[in-house]
Amino acid sequence: MSEIILVTGAAGQLGQRVIHHLIETYKVAPGNIVAATRSPEKLSELEKKGVVTRKADFDDAAGLEKAFAGVDRLLIISTDALDTPGKRLAQHKGAVAAAVKSGVKHIAYTSMPAPDNSLVTFAPDHLGSENAIKASGVAHTIIRDAWYHDNYLHGMPHNLQGGKWYSATGDGKISTISRDDCALAIAAALASGTSESATYTVTGTQSLDSRQIAAIVSDVAGKPLEVIDVTDEQLGQGMRGAGLPGFVADMLVSADANTRAGKFDIVTEDFTKLTGKQPQPLKDFFVEHKAALTAAGNAGGH
User: What superkingdom heads the lineage (predicted)?
Assistant: First the structure.
């Protein structure tokens, strides 16, 4: 069965890895894959491999309809439009409407765990997008990706330098997974040929609190790391003081609050259900990325 699979956000980190796994792990013919992005010129490497590239701008509904023409299975990777409230949801709704008009048979979407019960600032975007897909009447696969292991590489090098990690997560636990494992699970779902609708929550195999995570970081880096409990307000002020944009600081504070409330303490076997494999544990991830973890002079940021 040679379905045409289109991946939006194909120049982004997740999109690149999804396409990698479609080709390398699940042996999908490159000619059956459409990589779509605002700037197709960034996709020349994929083009060399035989992947079809198309321009897809989420702010251009008519353009999306053209981009999705002849596509059987569409993966909507949530966009990065987080600076303007409501913009991302509008983009996703536009993509779903374009998919319906183009006759797409199956829509896959990257969401987050429990978006209907979340303190995370962007959870309503995900919930609204899921609901728009369900309302479209098109068969769908919703993949709710847990917080990435990779997110820790932003702030941890800075934390290790001072030996202190300021956290508002309290005793809350979180189950994280690598971005690459999320891409593997998404690729598995896309390559499965399923016509059923399903929702998966892709997590690691265990939930850890900040002190357990700090112990792993400290062990791998060979440096002490102490967790300092702060309030949401203190954390937000510290991040703004370090130069992070307000919406990013608010988002990170909301993620800590969500963890503190126990709303990220979700462990499923959906990753194994989709891939037949075990997800990479956090410690193994840090060992693999030790150079980035212990990089001197990296003050976090995005």
Answer: Bacteria
